[in-house]
UniProtKB/TrEMBL annotation:
A single cellular component GO annotation: lateral plasma membrane
InterPro entries: ARM-like, ARM-type_fold, ARM_TBCD_2nd, TBCD
Example GO molecular function: beta-tubulin binding
Annotated Tubulin-folding cofactor D ARM repeats domain residues: 298-532
PANTHER family to which the protein is assigned, alphabetical: BETA-TUBULIN COFACTOR D, TUBULIN-SPECIFIC CHAPERONE D
Annotated protein name in UniProt: Tubulin-folding cofactor D ARM repeats domain-containing protein
GO terms, biological process: adherens junction assembly; bicellular tight junction assembly; microtubule cytoskeleton organization; post-chaperonin tubulin folding pathway; tubulin complex assembly
Domain of life: Eukaryota
Lineage: Eukaryota, Metazoa, Chordata, Craniata, Vertebrata
């Protein structure tokens, strides 16, 4: 384990100290033996009152050390499960011990992540019915046993994937008798218990959603139960969305869980299986207007569902018209100068498009996702941007260009900063997926240069900071997406914007984002003016201290003629009149230091500043 700490105490523009800290870096699960010893002590703690709290607390502390590096647990997950699952299997005999083992399992799942953790569960045929029976014995309303419900549902997520006809289980071990004397099939029992838990308000609803999506997309279940189950979900959603204003938190959680379940079904199901239901689900949901809810998670899940509905309408394939940079060599890029373009890229011949007719429902999906770009919450905008990128990648070239045009129209002075942020991350998705063709760059790059300096008038906004940060992400994506010859006409504009942002942006994260984007372009494009000379001065650590940026590094950068006048103009036009007085003072000092770099130009600037000052005083 390596401990390193570097602190920079010089104040940032907002008056807060800049700190760079390298915390604990781990190389292996060093407490594995201690963790196994704690698990081995469970039989002695099962009936010892509250004595189990201390070992559980210690186990929690051990696992918490690996939240930043959960992959280090992977070599030990199987052995931990082998120690804990026997207690779960005997849950009907030792319920207290089962509860305690599930608490340990939940801690592991929380640190490693349920998606990676669930794959480690055994999927033996003999466990299917016992695990289901143990889950049926649980009381969903028991708040002391929610970890048991969660772990059993996760385990069942793996068990329902066994490649055997479920009817064989009914013949070998019939289910409990119902009041009318019938024995429900295993298929119905699993669906009934999943319905019960998907409407819970704890984390077990998440596991139930995964269970449902995996189970109803099985070929045998899909044919017999999928239509009825989808109808049940739609009916529940209409029931949870009352016509009056009594849309309580409970209703919101139920609606979110059901929408998430639908999204997973359309995500994991085969297209030919879910396509017959996609249009019906879309039309029955669009009038519920979940996108107007105040619940962020509900709006985000609603966006995800429409994304996967849209993808189910379109044949999965890579768009033949997409931009492909081809093979490239980073070493060749670094060897090239600002006037030499890399010639090692290869371009495949465009293939002839072969598309099915695009259904009208796709237009409704795209419209909902475009509205999601304007959402007031960042998570919803990100979800909508990724959805638009995925759907556009399956459209014919002409329709995809119309989507890009629709997103471009959101770049207007009248749109809010949240809309600008959503549009920028959408363009980053387009570029990353090869959907933003070079012919569109003249329309996009001017907006990027404007967004790099974006500030809401009369106030300093958190979303304004996000706009500039997202713009740096777009520039970073451009560096990876485009061949140097396609980006060459815009290199000077992008380079100037990134240099100014890396030097003078008020926010530390924006300066570092601009620095990273600049370095990525220097390495992959090889055409940025004086890129190699500047990349060491505008690195991650140099961006940390804004005072040093204004007073020292800016003077060095201004020594290159391509950046001299843009730096001076930016300080005069933007930073001298900034809302933050500390930034104004730094800009004044920076202009003083820059005077030797362009004395004649600075004399004209001084006269201009003097005239503006006199007019303001009048």
């Amino acid at each position: 384990m390596e401990d390193m700490a570097l602190e920079m105490d010089q104040a940032d523009g907002d008056g807060e100290p800049d700190r760079i800290t390298w915390g604990n870096v781990l190389y292996s699960f060093v407490e594995s033996e201690e963790a196994k010893a704690l698990i081995a002590s469970l039989p002695d703690l099962g009936n010892a009152g509250l004595a189990w709290e201390r070992p559980l607390e210690r186990f929690t502390v051990i696992m918490s050390n690996y939240q930043d590096q959960p992959h280090l647990l992977d070599p030990h997950l199987d052995s931990l499960l082998e120690l804990l699952l026997p207690f779960v299997r005997d849950g009907d005999k030792e319920p207290r011990l089962c509860n305690l083992a599930c608490r340990f399992l939940h801690i592991i799942s929380k640190v490693r992540g349920p998606k990676a953790f669930v794959r480690r569960f055994p999927h033996e045929v003999g466990d299917v019915v016992p695990v289901l029976e143990l889950l049926e014995q649980q009381n969903p309303a028991d708040l002391e046993s929610w970890q048991v419900h969660y772990i059993l549902l996760l385990w069942l997520c793996m068990l329902v994937l066994v490649p055997f006809d479920l009817a064989r289980f009914d013949a070998a071990r019939p289910g409990p008798e119902t009041p009318d004397g019938a024995h429900p099939t295993l298929m119905d029992r699993i669906l009934n218990v999943a319905k019960l838990y998907v409407l819970q308000l704890d984390v077990s609803s998440y596991a139930a959603s995964i269970l449902i999506s995996r189970f109803v997309t099985r070929p045998d279940v899909q044919k017999l139960r999928s239509p009825q189950f989808l109808d049940w979900i739609i009916e529940q959603l209409h029931h949870e969305m009352p016509s009056n204003s009594e849309f309580t938190i409970k209703h919101q959680f139920h609606a979110k869980n059901l929408l998430y379940t639908l999204a997973l079904i359309f995500k994991h199901g085969k297209r030919e299986d879910v396509l017959p239901y996609a249009s019906t689900v879309l039309h029955r949901l669009k009038d519920l207007h979940f996108e107007a809810s105040l619940n962020i998670a509900l709006r985000k899940t609603h966006s995800k569902l429409f994304q996967w509905l849209g993808l189910s309408f379109l044949k999965p394939h890579l768009a033949p018209w997409r931009y492909q940079r081809g093979s490239r060599c980073l070493l060749d890029n670094l060897r090239s100068t600002s006037k030499e373009l890399v010639v090692g890229a290869t371009y495949p011949e465009p293939q002839e498009e072969d598309y099915e007719e695009v259904p009208e429902d796709v237009e409704e999906v795209i419209e909902r996702l475009l509205l999601g770009l304007k959402d007031k919450d960042t998570d919803v905008r990100w979800s909508a941007a990724k959805g638009i990128g995925r759907v556009t990648g399956r459209l014919p070239k002409q329709l995809a260009d119309e989507v890009v045009e629709s997103v471009l129209e959101y770049f207007s002075a009248g749109e809010s900063s949240t809309t600008w942020h959503g549009v920028l991350i959408a363009f980053a998705e387009f570029a990353r997926r090869g959907l933003l063709l070079p012919s569109r760059l003249p329309d996009v790059v001017p907006h990027l240069c404007k967004a790099l300096l974006y500030e809401e008038q009369f106030r300093m906004s958190r979303v304004s900071n996000q706009v500039r940060d997202a713009t740096c992400y777009v520039c970073w994506a451009f560096a990876r997406a485009y061949d140097p010859k396609d980006l060459q006409p815009f290199v000077n504009e992008i380079a100037r914007g990134l240099v100014i942002a890396a030097l003078f942006d008020r926010q530390l994260n924006c300066r570092r984002a601009a620095s990273a984007a600049f370095q990525e372009n220097v390495g992959r494009q090889g055409t940025f003016p004086h890129g190699i000379d500047l990349v060491t001065s505008l690195d991650y650590f140099a961006a940390a201290t804004i005072t040093n940026n204004y007073l020292n590094i800016s003077v060095y950068v201004a020594g290159f003629p391509e950046y001299t006048f843009p730096i001076i103009d930016h300080l005069v036009e933007k930073k001298m009149i900034h809302l933050d007085s500390a930034i104004c003072r730094l800009a004044s000092k920076a202009l003083h230091n820059l005077t030797p770099k362009a004395p004649t130009y600075m004399a004209d600037v001084s006269k201009f500043v003097h005239q503006v000052g006199r007019s303001l005083s009048l």
